[in-house]
Amino acid sequence: MPKPVPVADGPESYVPGNDGIIELEVGNPVMNKSTFGGHHAYPILGKDSNGDIECHRRYSHFDTFRSCLIKRYPGLYIPPIPTKVVQGKTDGMVTQERQYFLDLFLKKCCELPYLARSNEMQLFLRPAGNDIEKPLNNVAKPTTGEALQVYRACVPVQENWSE
Predict the structure, then answer these.
(1) Which long-range contacts (CB under 8 A, 24 or more apart) does 59-65 make?
(2) Within a domain: 77
(3) The domain containing residue 67 runs over which residues?
């Protein structure tokens, strides 16, 4: 994986996970059967500056990913995901609706530079091991200085009010 370069107009200490151009699509859900029932996995296909992306994610992974983004980027817009369904989650209509809205969620994330460039997006799409949720849950809440660095690098704000 090529090493990302710092954002030119941002502070040198902020290094994005990719160049910010990312295309993703969530495919039709696949049922994975297990001893205790089963679950649906949603295939994700796409590409970015780091290469091709091909992975499968459960709804719970999307939920953990979104919670991580909310914690990591307080005050910035994070697209919604469909609500959790307790009963009837294997119903064809429920899974198709969920697939549509999870696809919309990722497409919106790709449109927002602070999310598309984020290292959290890379953790979600390319985890170091088999466990996806643990690294996302372990992402620390940013200090005020870290949050400010990300905001300055990703969100155009005029800070000199005297002009």
Answers:
(1) 59/84, 59/89, 59/98, 59/102, 60/133, 61/124, 61/132, 61/133, 62/102, 62/105, 64/132, 64/133, 64/136, 64/137, 65/120, 65/124, 65/136
(2) yes
(3) 59-152
